[in-house]
Amino acid sequence: MNAQTPAHILAVDDDPAIRELLVDYLTEHGLRVTAVESGVEMQRVLQSQLVDLVLLDLRLGREDGMQLARSLREASQVPVIIVTGRMDEADRVMGLELAADDYINKPFSSRELLARIRAVLRRYQLMREASPARDAERRGYRFDGWELNLRSRRLTAPDGGRVELSNGEFNLLQAFCSAPQRVLSRDQLLDLSRLHGAEVYDRSIDVQILRLRRKIESNPAEPAYICTERGAGYVFSVTVEVLE
User: How far is Cα of residue 127 from the mean position of the Cα atoms in its chain?
Assistant: First the structure.
C-alpha cells in the first residue's frame, strides 16, 4: 500500500446486503474492496492477492468466525477488524486479545467503520515507518535466554520449552523487545501492540502485562523484566538482541 495504490480491504460477511454496502461505500471513499461470504473464499483471496486489512463477521452461517480470526492471526500479520451483531463483552475482549485490531458492532455507522479502518491502516503504516529495520526483516529477539520468534510467533524459554502466548501477549512482548530499556506509556503500548478499543483501554494493557509477567518472570510480584515506572508506564529492563 502506498500513496498511489488504494488499500485493499477484504470483507468477509455472509449477508449479501452488507457486502454490497461495504463495497459501494468503501470504494466510494478510495479503498479497493473484495467481498466474500465464507472462510474458504477468504483464504483463496489471501493466497492469491495482497490484502491490507480484513473485515471479518463473527457469524458466518456454520463457520466459527472467532476460530477463523484466530487462524488468520496465526498465519498472517494482516490487520483484522471484527464486525458482528454480538453484544457480549466477553466476545469483544476475546476478539481483541486473540485476533483483532478493532471491533465494531452491527448495526454500525458507515462513517465510523471507515474511520476505524483508516485508523488501523494509519497505525500500521506509522509502525512500519518508525522502525528502521522492519520486523518482517527480523527473525526475532533474544533476551536473558528467552527467544521470541516473529515468523513462527513462538516464545521459547531458556530451558527450551515453548510458552503459549495469546495474540495480545505476543504483540505486547514484541513491543517491549523492540524498545528495550525505554519507558513506554500505556498509549504507546496500545499503538505498538496493536490493541484498540475505548472500552478495554488502559485496563487491557495492565491485564495483559500481569498475564505476561506470570509467564516470563521468575517472581511476577517482583518483576525483573517488565518493570513499572510509576506515573509514566512500563520499561523492559533487560538487554535485547535482535535476530536477523
Answer: 12
